[in-house]
């Protein structure tokens, strides 16, 4: 709020309170009215800057003298005790205003310091995570390229294919980490807005699994032919699915499957992701969507951004996400996304 508006609010609020007190003057002693006006000045000091607050102190003192200290409707004060009280009121109002303003500045500086420390901690966490997550695929790419260059003409076709595949896998890992960082930046800045389009959720999941996980046999998508055609952001859906599936594959043993289900109810597209890993201690579940959070004593790998990005995309779609430990083990994510559906498909499903 700019200074001019603060001055106006101070003046209006004092006039309103004084009008109320003036009609109650027969029931309230003018000394009690002084305390009430001091309370008003204190409230101004907690909200406004120092100069509007000083104006509040001066204005309230003058009005109190003119309207409430006998003889009223004059600035003359006949009683020495009232003169002393008026001076004390003015001093107390000014001191109170200045002290509260300084206290507010101290609190603001403390909050800024806390925010800086928090930002620095997040930066160090991110830097430590990325130093491994980015260095590993980069080293794999550089090493494979060096081998191809140094042993050109000496490598068998099979070894050449293996090195090229290693470069491709490392490139995908690198792209995934960079994409997550960009997505988190866009989500926090509010520049990432959903672009809604009609899509077949079943087909989209088949495409996502094929393009990003090479139809990994561990991923079991349960086709639901009763789903209507939904209007939503396909890119957001893909980012949600990729990050949850990657997280599930990372923490689930090779012999366990990840089950993905979908349904439609009460205008919501309902997506479920179940893995059968070790799950998460219940005390850590409330923090699973926090940036850079990783459950203590878990395997290394990941920056702790994946699930916070999932939450960001779900929020951007005006949806909600719940997570709980699966029975007997693992995690289950339930995602509810409000969607528009086609009338033709609704008829087909009736």
TrEMBL record:
It is an enzyme of class 2 (transferase). The chain crosses the membrane at residues 7-24, 30-48, 55-77, 83-103. It holds the Pfam family DUF4118. Residues 129-341 form the Histidine kinase domain. InterPro entries: HATPase_C_sf, HATPase_dom, His_kinase_dom, HisK_dim/P_dom, HisK_dim/P_sf, Histidine_kinase_KdpD, KdpD_sf, KdpD_TM. Its EC number is 2.7.13.3. Keywords: ATP-binding, Kinase, Membrane, Nucleotide-binding, Phosphoprotein, Transferase, Transmembrane, Transmembrane helix, Two-component regulatory system. Gene3D superfamilies: 1.10.287.130, Backbone structure of the membrane domain of e. Coli histidine kinase receptor kdpd, Histidine kinase-like ATPase, C-terminal domain. It is found in: Membrane. It catalyses: ATP + protein L-histidine = ADP + protein N-phospho-L-histidine. It is a multi-pass membrane protein. This is histidine kinase. The lineage of its organism: Bacteria, Pseudomonadati, Bacteroidota, Flavobacteriia, Flavobacteriales.
């Amino acid at each position: 709020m700019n200074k001019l508006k603060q001055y106006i609010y101070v003046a209006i609020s004092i006039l309103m309170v004084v009008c109320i007190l003036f009609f109650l003057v027969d029931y309230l002693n003018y000394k009690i009215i002084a305390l009430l006006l001091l309370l008003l000045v204190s409230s101004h000091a907690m909200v406004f800057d120092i100069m509007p607050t000083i104006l509040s102190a001066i204005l309230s003192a003058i009005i109190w003298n003119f309207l409430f200290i006998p003889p009223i409707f004059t600035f003359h004060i006949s009683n020495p005790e009232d003169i002393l009280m008026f001076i004390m009121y003015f001093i107390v109002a000014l001191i109170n205003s200045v002290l509260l303003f300084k206290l507010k500045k101290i609190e603001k500086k403390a909050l800024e310091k806390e925010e800086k420390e928090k930002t620095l901690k997040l930066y160090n966490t991110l830097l430590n995570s990325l130093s491994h997550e980015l260095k590993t695929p980069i080293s794999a790419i550089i090493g494979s390229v060096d081998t191809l260059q140094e042993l050109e003409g000496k490598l068998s076709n099979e070894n050449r294919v293996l090195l090229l595949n290693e470069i491709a896998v490392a490139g995908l890992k690198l792209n995934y980490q960079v994409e997550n960082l960009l997505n988190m930046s866009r989500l926090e800045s509010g520049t990432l807005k959903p672009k809604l389009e009609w899509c077949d959720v079943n087909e989209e999941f088949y495409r996502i699994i094929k393009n990003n996980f090479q139809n990994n046999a561990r991923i079991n998508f349960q086709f639901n032919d009763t789903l209507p055609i939904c209007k939503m952001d396909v890119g957001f859906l893909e980012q949600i699915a990729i990050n949850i599936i990657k997280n599930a594959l990372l923490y689930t043993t090779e012999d366990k499957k990840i089950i993905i289900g979908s349904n439609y109810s009460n205008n919501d597209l309902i997506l479920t992701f179940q893995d059968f890993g070790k799950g998460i201690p219940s005390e850590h579940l409330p923090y699973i969507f926090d940036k850079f959070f990783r459950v203590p004593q878990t395997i290394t790998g990941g920056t702790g951004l994946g699930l916070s990005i999932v939450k960001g995309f779900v929020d951007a779609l005006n949806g909600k996400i719940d997570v709980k430990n699966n029975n007997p083990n693992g995690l289950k994510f339930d995602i509810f996304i409000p969607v528009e559906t086609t009338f033709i498909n609704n008829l087909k499903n009736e």
